[in-house]
Amino acid sequence: MLKKCFYSARVRSPVFPYMLLNYLELGLILFTLGILGIIVNRKNIILMLMSIELTLLAVNFLLIVFSVTLDDINGQVFSLFILCVAAAESAIGLSILVAYYRVKSSISVQFINLLKG
């Protein structure tokens, strides 16, 4: 009796299968735009950093959608860790960009190997 009440009190996921496909399409579009931004734009480092952030946010979005769909908290916790890594990545990337701008007075990616050593 107690076991039956426990399972009947459990709330079903609010994401329906037809909504899941829409969320998957949106995540795939965001991820594809981020990858294309990295591949197509090889000269502007700011747009490359933005494209990397877009791909990470698309992965986070899909993790949260699957976490809600499967009624599991692990995807949301993992998404939080990815957001922390993305914030650290953007901070380090921008600090390298500032150091490069101080040396060369431009942010062109063509001569980025001058920061070696």
Task: Please tell me about this protein's structure.
This protein has a single domain, classed as Orthogonal Bundle (Helix Hairpins), CATH 1.10.287.3510. The chain is 75% helix and 0% strand. The protein contains 4 helices and no strands. Helix 3 runs antiparallel to helix 4. It is elongated, with a radius of gyration of 21 Å. The termini are far apart.
**Helix/strand/pairing category:** mainly alpha
Under CATH at level 1, the class stands as: Mainly Alpha
Multimerization state? single chain
Low-confidence stretches: 1-9
What count of helical segments does DSSP give? 4
Cα-atom Rg, whole angstroms?
21 Å
Helical percentage: over 70%
